[in-house]
Each structure stands twice: as structure tokens, then as C-alpha cells.
């Protein structure tokens, strides 16, 4: 158990992500981290081992991180010790893609082997880090395509959020056997592992089903199946 939050809208993202993560503390965790996107700049990633209050302090309650789109994570380590390095978000080498993941990637070892052969290097001992490098491998300007390819290979459980420099105001999500809800207002969109994380901001909430992906934009959410076909919500 652990937590995930994503936000895109008009307000500063980091305080909203931290508030959302604080509402998920009951789920248990050993470290926390956020990635916030600000226009065309690379995402700013901040991580802290231990209590969420460490991350809150490190970011001046989120005020230190500019940007209106981001993802947050509280980790319950399954692969690799609790540490800053193993905390999420994980980022590709060029720092253009960042991900957070709840769950377990059962076939991460074989994926990692393939990626190592392709020249990818790993910063953490987590199973999750294969996801960001696999997205990088498949990404040729279309993140939904990369995500679709990626989820076809992933075995195990995942609630996954992705931000990418080429999509300044989008959060991409995918879900299988790990909880994920979506929420929306006229100007913003949210995702989270549980409803309390978004209740301060919206009551317009629905569940993302197993085998579904979504693109969150300010004021809109598009849902797709793992084949990339749109699902009406
Ligand atoms: N398996 C991942 C890890 O160990 C994610 C754990 C989680 O769900 O927080 O980093």
C-alpha cells in the first residue's frame, strides 16, 4: 500500500500534490517524492526518505516548486531499500520523462536486461525504474503510443503516472490491479490512489478500471483501453 497523486490545472501544482499525499498517509509509506512541470522546462524532482513532512519542509510546503502540472508518490518499498535514490519519481537519462508507480512489476528483471543491452543505465534498485526507460525507448513524439507499448509488456500490478516535457500540461496514467481514481473540475484534472486525496478540490470523481489508460489535461480527461481505443466515461 502506498499513494499516488497527479494534478494539472491553473493553480501551483506542488502544494496540491503534497496535500493529496497527506490524505493518503494512512496507506503507509517509507519515502515520498514529487515531479512538477513548469512550461517547457524539465520537470523539477524532489524526493525525501521518511515522513512526508520531510518533503513538505524541503519544498517550503510546495511553494518552492513552480508549475501547474505534476505527479506525487508515497513509496512502500518492495524492490530496493527505502532511500532517496529508490524513491519515486524516476526519470529517463535526458530528464524529459518522469514517472511514479504503485505496485510491483513482476517481469522487471527481464525488461531490465533488454534495456541494459540497449545501453540504458539504472539509478535505482527498484522494479519501477524499468518503466521510465521503456517509455523512453518507445517514445518517438507520441506518449500515448509509448505508454500503450509499455503496458503490453508489463506484468504485475501498476498504478502509473507519467509527465513529459513535450506535453507541458498533461499527466498520462495507466492502471492494472492497483487502485486509481480520476477527478475533474472545469479547469483542472486529478488522479490519485484514493478519493480523499482529491476531495478538497472536486466531487466529480470516477474510477479508472483495470486495463485503462487516461490523459489528464486542465478541465478534461480522455480514457482509453490498453489498445489505445477511446472508452466513453
Ligand atoms: N515496487 C515499487 C518500488 O519498490 C513501488 C512500490 C510502491 O507501490 O510504492 O519502488
Give unreliable regions as ranges: none
Number of strands: 14
Radius of gyration using CA atoms only:
16 Å
Structural class determined from secondary elements: alpha+beta
The coarse silhouette is globular
- Percentage of residues assigned to helices: 10-25%
Number of helices: 5
Q: What is the helix/strand order? A: EHEEHEEEHHHEEEEEEEE
How far apart the termini lie comes to: 27 Å
Strand content: 25-35%
User: What does the largest sheet look like?
Assistant: 7 strands, antiparallel
- Unique ligands: glutamic acid
Mean pLDDT over all positions:
96
Strand order of the largest sheet: 3-2-4-1-10-9-11
Walk me through the topology.
Elements: E1 3-8, H1 13-22, E2 31-37, E3 44-49, H2 52-58, E4 69-75, E5 90-91, E6 97-105, H3 108-117, H4 129-138, H5 143-153, E7 156-164, E8 171-176, E9 181-184, E10 189-192, E11 205-207, E12 212-217, E13 220-225, E14 230-231
Antiparallel strand pairs: 1-4, 1-10, 2-3, 2-4, 5-6, 6-7, 7-8, 8-12, 9-10, 9-11, 12-13, 13-14
Bound molecules: glutamic acid (GLU).
The site of glutamic acid has 15 residues, from strand 6.
Can you describe what's shown?
- The chain is an alpha+beta fold.
- The protein is 21% helix and 33% strand.
- The protein has helices at 13-22, 52-58, 108-117, 129-138, 143-153, and strands at residues 3-8, 31-37, 44-49, 69-75, 90-91, 97-105, 156-164, 171-176, 181-184, 189-192, 205-207, 212-217, 220-225, 230-231.
- The strands form 2 sheets. Strands 3-2-4-1-10-9-11 form a 7-stranded antiparallel beta sheet, covered by helices on one side. A 7-stranded antiparallel beta sheet has the order 5-6-7-8-12-13-14.
- Helix 3 (108-117) packs across helix 4 (129-138) and helix 4 crosses helix 5.
- Bound molecules: glutamic acid.
- The site of glutamic acid has 15 residues, from strand 6.
Amino acid at each position: 500500500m502506498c499513494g499516488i497523486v497527479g494534478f494539472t490545472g491553473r493553480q501551483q501544482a506542488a502544494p496540491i500534490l503534497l496535500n493529496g499525499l497527506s490524505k493518503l498517509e494512512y496507506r503507509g509509506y517509507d519515502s515520498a517524492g514529487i515531479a512538477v512541470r513548469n512550461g517547457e522546462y524539465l520537470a523539477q524532482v524532489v524526493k525525501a526518505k521518511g515522513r512526508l513532512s520531510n518533503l513538505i519542509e524541503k519544498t517550503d510546503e510546495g511553494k518552492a516548486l513552480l508549475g501547474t502540472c505534476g505527479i506525487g508518490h508515497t513509496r512502500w518499498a518492495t524492490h530496493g531499500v527505502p532511500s532517496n535514490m529508490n524513491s519515486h519519481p524516476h526519470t529517463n537519462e535526458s530528464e524529459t520523462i518522469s514517472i511514479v508507480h504503485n505496485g510491483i512489476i513482476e517481469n522487471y528483471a527481464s525488461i531490465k536486461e533488454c534495456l541494459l543491452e540497449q545501453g540504458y543505465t539504472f539509478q535505482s534498485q527498484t522494479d519501477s525504474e524499468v518503466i521510465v526507460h521503456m517509455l523512453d525507448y518507445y517514445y518517438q513524439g507520441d506518449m500515448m503510443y509509448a505508454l500503450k507499448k509499455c503496458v503490453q509488456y508489463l506484468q504485475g500490478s501498476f498504478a502509473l503516472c507519467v509527465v513529459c516535457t513535450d506535453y507541458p500540461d498533461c499527466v498520462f496514467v495507466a492502471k492494472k490491479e492497483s487502485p486509481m481514481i480520476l477527478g475533474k473540475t472545469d479547469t483542472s484534472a486529478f488522479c490519485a490512489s484514493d478519493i480523499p486525496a482529491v476531495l478538497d478540490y472536486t466531487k466529480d470523481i470516477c474510477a479508472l478500471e483495470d486495463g485503462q489508460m487516461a490523459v489528464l489535461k486542465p478541465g478534461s480527461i480522455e480514457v482509453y483501453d490498453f489498445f489505445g481505443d477511446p472508452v466513453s466515461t
